[in-house]
Structure formats: structure tokens, C-alpha cells
Amino acid sequence: MYLMRSARIWYLYFGVILMVFMCFMVNFGVWCPNENEQKLENLLARYRDQIKEKDKEVREAGDKLRTSEKKIQDLILNLEVRGKNNRVFDQSMPVIYAITPTYNRSEQKAELTRLSQTFLHLPNFHWIVIEDSALRTKLVTNFLNLCGLSYTHLNILTPKEVKLKLDDPNWLKPRGVLQRNMGLSWLRKNLNPEKQPGVVYFADDDNTYDLKIFAEMRQTQKVSVWPVGLVGSLRYESPVVKNGKVTGWFTYWKPDRPFAMDMAGFAVNLQLFFQYPEVEFSNYVKRGYQESTILSGMKITLDDLEPLADHCTKVLVWHTRTETPKLKNEDRLNRKFGHGSDPNVEV
Ligand code: UGA
Ligand code: MN
What we know:
The protein has helices spanning 2-27, 33-84, 108-119, 138-146, 177-190, 211-217, 270-275, 290-297, 309-312, 328-337; strands spanning 95-102, 125-131, 150-155, 198-202, 208-209, 223-225, 228-231, 234-242, 245-250, 266-269, 305-307, 317-318. It is an alpha/beta fold. The protein has a seven-stranded mixed sheet, with helices on both faces. The protein has a three-stranded antiparallel sheet with strand order 7-8-9, with no helix packed on it. The model has no long low-confidence stretch (mean pLDDT 92). Manganese (II) ion binds at residues 204, 206, 321.
């Protein structure tokens, strides 16, 4: 009897212990493995979603950071270019005014880039750019705005009757005449050579210039001259210098011209344009006589000429003419796919 009762108590005791143990297992997720795996899956899925979201946020923040970095980089680069050229002119040093006619064609921006990056090396320099166009173009406006130089942007269209046509040989009509004249008008209207001395140079947009020639021409008293390379179908043309004076011209083509040299081969003291306020270039003078027209108009004689570049023995300026780029594959692309290269990319 006693034994039976104590056995029952033991069963009860074990029963209670078992129940407590099972409750414990269920409560702490050790038991019911299927339900537990499900929980874990859900938890993982939630974490995966959260990670994806965070990933997206990080990527977006990275993109924003990269855009800002690019902007900062551009600003730093611009500052470097703009900061290089001090636009506050040194009053004691003559300013060089370069007059550059330019016109729209596929290599225009390349020419202007090369030219401007030569000029950026010069102190006391002002660039007068005159477009041969009815309106100032967006390309040249934006270009000048960022070029880092002190500049003036003008425009005047060459009328049809004096304009070179696409298939004309380049010698048929003069180029840049009205544009250079407009540059001269601007000088006469806006400058005072008594206040700040200056030197004027006609810098076509397709030539190549050694910096040394600018340092030399800055001290021009009346008119300075020097050789020009790759012009007149010769390796170079040059003033002939004897005992430090110009006595004539080394050129094959029309050596009898009063000033038988290219536009790139001389610079003029600013004062002379005020002394002779009517002097300008003309579309109606004989071919090769532009330089002679302007210098004769100022009563310049050979004796007045100041030979530079080591008595005209060095070539520091080249009449490089850029080859017209062939873009025929643009048309081919257009025929094949209905469009050529992206017109939004400025070249
Ligand atoms: C040569 C001389 O080097 C030029 O100084 C001179 O103006 C020219 O001959 C001429 O006979 O008139 P070249 O290389 O044949 O030069 O001429 P370009 O370089 O084609 O033109 C001279 C300047 O005028 C350049 O700055 C050019 O951009 C500009 N131009 C040319 C225009 O403004 N409009 C045009 O239709 C063509
Ligand atoms: Mn040229």
C-alpha cells in the first residue's frame, strides 16, 4: 500500500517535471523545429530587405558624392586656368591686344583652344575675338567665358559678295577683313594709349605662336617685324635685315609689295591707330596688299621697321593651316542608322 502510493507520487513528480521541461523547450524554441525554421527565414528575409534598402541608400549617397566631387574638381580646374592670368593689368607694361577673326567650322573650337592656351601664359594680354557671323554663337560665347583670358567678344558677318565660297580657292578673296576692322574700331573707341601703352597684333586663329615673339613685340615703338614660317609656298618668308635695318623682303610671291609679309609677321604700336584714325583693311585691295594697305596708310617706311627674332633670323610664328577634317562617315552613319554622332557633344 505504502509502496503503491509512493510510486504514484513518483509518477506525478516525473509527469510534472516532464511538462515543465516541454514547456521550457517550446518556450525557448528548441522544440518544434519547423516553426523555428520559419521564424528564422522570416527574420532573414526582413534583414535581407533592410540590407537591400541600405545598399540603395549607400549607392545613391555615393552617386551624389561623386557628382559633387566632379563639380568641385571642375571648379578647381577652372580656377587654376582663370587664376593663372592676372586680369589686373600692370600699368607700367604695354598691353598686347591680339585681334583674331574666327568663323564657324568643325575645327573652330580646337583652333581657339590651342590659341587661348598659348595666350594664357602671357601677362598684360587682351584678346579681341571677332566672329564672322550674324550673331555671336553659343560655342564661342561659352568658350570665351571659360577660357581664363581677358577678352572682348564681337561679331560681324562678311557679306556674300566678298565671302569665300566653300569650293573657292582660298586665295580668291581676302578673309577676316571686316572682323579685323571691327577690332580696330573697338580699340579706338575703348582705349586710351596715353593712359596705358599697347601693341596690336593680328593673330589669326589657325597659326602657331612661340611665346617669345610676344615678349619681343611688347616693346614695339612703331612697327616691329619678323619672319613667318611655312608661308608663301616657302619654308619661311622674312624681312631682309642689313646692319640692323630692314632693307627689303625675302619672298617668292610679289616681292615688290611695299610690305611683302604675312599678317602674322608684324605688330603695331597702339598709338599709331589713334594717330591715323581712318586707317583700316579693305576687301577691295589687290591680293596680298592688306598688310601694305594698313602700314602705308600710317606713313610707315622701311626705315621705321624694328626687326625682331634675332635680326629676323629665327622663325617664332608659323602660318600653319589646319587640314579640313573629313567627316564623311557621319553621313554614312546617318544613312545606316538614321543619325550620326550625338549632336549634343560639342567638338
Ligand atoms: C592668309 C593670311 O595669313 C591671312 O592673314 C589673310 O587674312 C588671308 O591669307 C587673306 O588672304 O585674307 P589664310 O591662312 O589663307 O591666311 O587665311 P585664313 O586663316 O583662312 O583666314 C584668316 C583669318 O580670317 C582667320 O583667323 C580665320 O578664322 C578668319 N576667317 C576666315 C573669317 O573670319 N571668315 C572666313 O570666312 C574665313
Ligand atoms: Mn590661316
